[in-house]
Amino acid sequence: MLTRPCVVLVSTYELGHQPFGLASPAAWLRAAGAEVSCLDLAVDQPDVETLRRADLVAFYLPMHTATRIAAEWIPRVREINPRARLAAYGLYAPMNDDLLRRLGVGAVIGGEFEESLTALVTSPGRELPLISLDRLAFRVPDRAALPALDRYAYLTMPDGSHRVAGYTEATRGCKHMCRHCPIVPVYGGRFRVVDREVVLADVGQLVAAGADHITFGDPDFFNGPAHARALVTELHRRHPELTYDATIKVEHLRRRERDLPLLKETGCVLVTCAVESFDEAVLDRFDKRHTADDVARVVTVLRELGLALNPTFVAFTPWTSPEGYLGFLARIAELGLVGSVAPVQYSIRLLIPAGSELLKLGEVADLAEEFDPRALCHPWRHPDPVVDALYRQVLEIVRTGLAASTGRGELFAQLWAAAAVFAGRDGAEPPGRERWGLRTRVPTLSEPWYCCAEPTEEQLAPKV
Ligand code: SF4
Fold it and tell me: Coiled-coil annotation: which residues (predicted)?
């Protein structure tokens, strides 16, 4: 009797979610006859015996942090099982192809990965593309071997109650070309739709496993607005008590204002939105296709609908100035968003991964240093060392505040005081506290969205 190939799928970090990136290929590989084990290193220790038996160990790399952690684990897995074939798949795999191959990874798979990953088992000799954007007939993810949902991020509602969160994806890739976005080098402005019945079946099994909230991890939920509308309508019909959150870009929230009431009516409680900056010059360099006025309009519309906003930012860029950072804080206060901004967002620093479209801008190419294989990015230091000193201080305030569970209002006040000093406006008053938006509590995910590489002191030190 032929033995079944033994595959171990490994996730190192998926933003606190039960890893979709293991569940989806697990379904494909099991259907192809493989024996599949799933290892989520974010919550579990590795089962060494299972790793020893593996014919194939495949690391899921959806994001920068996951890739950095995987780069530490790959040599350990090779020691445990030198015989196993190693693979890496997901968004960050192709852009780190060189590094992964140096670490001993034989197969690097980007884009739509399930079919190629399965081919490693069914047709081991087949040559595979580095990036495949083939339209796949998706299978319902197989979550049987994953840790329970209550070991992952949860949603805290304004009344303090917790909701168990499940995570799935209704589309992948993105039809936009924002220059700072890691999706662009892989998907090049394309996106792929997951069949509605597959998404609904996945939601159904998440609900059966205890989820009362779903996070849609699509890079942009409104890339396919008709798909999104039909999906949430049916989702709500089948699970009227279920809440959900989704990520939608400012441009789509503006253009699709008429669709926003449907989100509210179907259980959406939180919209994550990559605001990035209020500075038009930065938005332009990022090619975000929205303005600061668009953001203000979105804030108003969502507030009127009772939909909470989870804004994300790239607070530190090569174009940030101390005065500009203070203005950024002022705008957050004026828009009543202090209670809505996750603390880490005040300290996010532009990440320039390999292949970033930003490197096509001469000013960024001049500033970016050689690719750092440990940090997995091109480090950069601000032309004005004062801004990097401000960055360090902001980081310190945010870290200390998080460790001490400092409230968002108090943390904002500390950041304001520090930024005012750096801007030469020591003692300047922030916009009136009554406007900060602290009275209305918003739903929050226990693992806020972010992915950044904090530079080392050496990387921040001014060049001599
Ligand atoms: S809209 Fe969002 S996901 Fe799409 S390219 Fe821009 S930043 Fe990336």
Answer: none
